[in-house]
Amino acid sequence: MANIKTCLEAAGSSLDKVVLRRSYFLNIKKDVPIVARIWDKWAPGVKPVSTAVQVSGLAKEGAVIEIEVEAEV
């Protein structure tokens, strides 16, 4: 979340302007509730359109979750 926040701010946006969130999981049933809690901590009240997809692998070795966002500037 810190990386997402930093990237958004560098682009002139912020977490409260996120309108779309795509999350990729190795174990969707286990990790969706965890991501929801973390998201609510970092972006309380922000409820973007969200998609969750289970995948067999992610680009970064050792990663179990990847989150992609789109935000208004």
Automatic annotation (TrEMBL):
SUPFAM superfamilies per the UniProt record, alphabetical: YjgF-like (SSF55298)
Cross-referenced Pfam families: Ribonuc_L-PSP (PF01042)
Database matches in InterPro entries: RutC-like_sf, YjgF/YER057c/UK114
UniProt protein name: Uncharacterized protein
Organism: Zasmidium cellare
Lineage of source species: Eukaryota, Fungi, Dikarya, Ascomycota, Pezizomycotina
